[in-house]
Design brief:
Helix content: 10-25%
Shape: elongated
Radius of gyration: 26 Å
Number of helices: 6
Distance between the termini: 67 Å
Strand order of the largest sheet: 1-2-3
Strand content: 25-35%
Order of helices and strands: EEEHHEEEHEEEEEEEEHHH
């Protein structure tokens, strides 16, 4: 039992004592974290209490010397200012909210996404942002129609240049189909279909994005017929009826080199 307010002593399975800090604010019991030292737990409690009582404290006030974890700092600050408690480090504004992955990595989202990210913790691994849901991991890019393995600046970009601004009006999809790249030639767009098998292979260049997407699908079928087992994601062209798609599929020209790729 600790004698310090908001601090509770408990034991690990091996009998070692550690300390938990918590406080109650607006009838909400908030855990502040676990600490090896009682003094650190007490400092975290005092920092949280000061945050609640002093409206001059803002996110930029946070210091790395503080014992209160940064995500708890953001959570309490948002609760103080906006009267709504989230378990993830979100701070809401009128038309959008910020999700603090770290103090220096700030993601922006539309309010429409608020309750999704309020219940899904964002993690970063290998340069990708993802959430866990029902035991699986999902890249958050997929939520905005950005395909797996899409490359920033080639397949999509952010209009204001901020890669972490995921507001819908800021996301621009450049290439809508798998295996299709857009280039400009003599002032006109040219769509290049590319497929990967131990390096990239050009399927062909086409006047429309849909033709390039169909060419990619046809190349996938050719590679599968050649015994290649790779699980390629084919394109679905929503703008074409099945008979229109089939006609284009039959007529689209594929590089002879694609037919030569073997397992």
């Amino acid at each position: 039992m600790s004698t310090k307010t908001g601090v509770y002593a408990t034991k690990k399975k091996n009998g070692e004592v550690y300390y938990r800090a918590s406080l109650t604010y607006k009838k909400k019991h908030i855990s502040l974290g676990s600490f090896d030292l009682e003094t650190d737990a007490n400092q975290a409690y005092n920092e949280a209490k000061s945050l609640i009582e002093n409206s001059d404290i803002i996110i930029d006030s946070y210091s790395d010397t503080m014992k209160l974890p940064f995500d708890k700092f953001v959570i309490i600050l948002n609760f103080r200012d906006n009267n709504i408690y989230f378990s993830t480090p979100i701070y809401i504004y009128r038309n959008f909210f910020e999700y603090y992955l770290t103090k220096d990595t700030i993601l922006k989202f539309d309010r429409d996404d608020l309750f999704f990210y309020a219940s899904h913790k964002i993690q970063q691994k290998g340069g990708y942002l993802f959430v866990s849901d029902y035991g699986s991991q999902y890249k958050i890019l997929a939520r905005y129609g950005i395909k797996p393995f899409a490359v920033y600046g080639r397949d999509y970009d952010m209009i204001n240049g901020d890669k972490y601004d995921f507001r819908y009006s800021n996301i621009r999809l450049i290439n809508n189909y798998t295996g299709v790249l857009v280039e400009e030639k003599n002032g006109k767009p040219v769509y290049t279909a590319v497929i990967h098998k131990i390096g990239n292979h050009i399927i062909g260049r086409y006047d429309t994005e849909e033709d390039a997407a169909i060419a990619y699908n046809k190349a996938v079928d050719i590679l599968h017929n050649n015994g290649i087992q790779k699980n390629y994601t084919k394109n679905y062209i929503i703008s074409l009826k099945s008979e229109e798609y089939q006609k284009k599929y039959e007529n689209v020209v594929i590089s002879n080199k694609i037919y030569e790729i073997k397992a």
